[in-house]
Write a structure and sequence with these properties.
single chain, 65 residues, mainly alpha, 85% helix, rod-shaped
């Protein structure tokens, strides 16, 4: 049976899957990094908000004196 020129070989198919897996792994890694950065930034914002709240409470106590 003759092979069509347009039909990919098993090697070509498996090479494509390898690239697809690499792309999917890369995308997963990028999402993980983005999530970690977002979490870190959110932690920094939360810490700043807590400091601002504490300073506001301290200033209000000073004003009440």
């Amino acid at each position: 049976m003759a092979k069509d020129d347009d039909t990919p070989t098993i090697r070509e198919l498996s090479a494509g899957k390898g690239r697809l897996i690499d792309v999917m792994s890369s995308a997963y890694l990028q999402r993980s990094i983005n999530s970690a950065v977002e979490t870190t930034l959110q932690d920094q914002v939360n810490a700043r908000n807590q400091r601002m709240l504490l300073m506001t409470k301290q200033l209000n106590k000073i004003v009440d004196l």
